[in-house]
Amino acid sequence: MTTSAEERDRLVMEHVGLVKILAQRLCRRLPAPADMAALVGVGVLGLIDAATRYHTSTGVPFDAFA
Predict the structure, then answer these.
(1) Residue ranges of the alpha helices (H) in 1-66?
(2) What is the mean pLDDT of residues 4-22?
(3) pLDDT tens digit sequence for 42-55
(4) Residue 2 pLDDT exceeds 70
(5) Each residue of 28-60: b (16+ CB within 10 Å) or e?
(6) Residue 53 main-chain phi, psi, to 5 deg
(7) CA separation for the pair 45, 41 (Å, rounded)
(8) Which of 6, 18, 1 lies closest to 55 in space, CA to CA?
(9) Contact at 8 Å (CB) between 59 and 44?
(10) Rounded distance, CA 36 to CA 56, Å?
(11) What's the CA angle centered on 48, arms 34 and 30, to 5 degrees?
């Protein structure tokens, strides 16, 4: 069973803060021209992909899966 669009959107919205935190941590470790907005954008794309593939039946929390 694939994740519904509503469930995918809910998961993304609930976890976008995690993407921002991780992007900030990564940005601090990269050379000065690192673009925070680009890191967040790529992170959100990865989050959307993870939310699309996630199945609650696995018993793995979404934040660990993503």
Answers:
(1) 5-29, 36-53, 62-65
(2) 94
(3) 999 999 999 999 99
(4) no
(5) eeeeeeeeeeebbeebbeebbebbeebeeeeee
(6) -90, -10
(7) 6
(8) 1
(9) no
(10) 31
(11) 15
Q: How many residues does the chain have?
A: 66
What distance in Å separates the CA atoms of residue 59 and residue 1, rounded to the nearest whole number?
A: 14
**Do residues 48 and 12 make contact, with C-beta atoms less than 8 angstroms apart?**
yes
Structure tokens at 22: 């991780």
What residues have CB less than 8 Å from 34, skipping those under 6 apart? 26, 27
Note the pLDDT of residue 25.
Answer: 93
Q: Are 60 and 47 in contact (CB under 8 A)?
A: no
